[in-house]
Amino acid sequence: MSELLKHQRQLLGIAKTWALANVPGWSDDCHRDLLAAHGGRASRGGDRVSALSMSSRQIGAALDDYARRGWPRRKTFSRGAS
């Protein structure tokens, strides 16, 4: 798995946690609906939508959706002290 995809999945978890605490009425079902709207599919043998089935572009669109809802996303990073 690419490091970018792994990082984006972590950001989705952070955004979901933020939304659960800050967006009135937000739930796990809302999160799954958001993933499904951006290309997430149900996992094999289940009905839960997962980010594991999503491409980097699809996850990026879902993160942008969270940002439009007020998530204070920071797109900058530091490489540490050199």
Characterise the protein shown here.
With 82 residues, this protein is mostly helical. 52% of the residues lie in helices and 5% in strands. The protein is built from 3 helices and 2 strands; from the N terminus they run H-H-E-E-H. Strands 1-2 form a two-stranded antiparallel sheet. Helix 1 (3-22) runs parallel beside helix 3. The longest helix is centred in the N-terminal third of the chain and has 20 residues, at 3-22. The protein is globular.
Topology:
Blueprint lengths: L2 H20 L5 H10 L3 E2 L6 E2 L5 H13 L14
Search tags:
single chain, 82 residues, mainly alpha, two-stranded antiparallel ribbon, 3 helices, 2 strands, 52% helix, globular
Q: Write the H/E string, N to C.
A: HHEEH
* DSSP helix fraction: 40-55%
Radius of gyration, CA atoms, in whole angstroms: 13 Å
Roughly what fraction of the amino acids lie in strands?
Answer: under 5%
Quickly count the helices: 3
Low-confidence stretches: none
Give the total of beta strands: 2
Distance between the termini: 27 Å
Largest sheet: 2 strands, antiparallel
Q: What is the overall pLDDT average?
A: 86
Morphology:
globular
- Give the structural class: mainly alpha
Strand order of the largest sheet: 1-2
Short description:
The protein is mainly alpha-helical and 82 residues long. The protein is 52% helix and 5% strand.
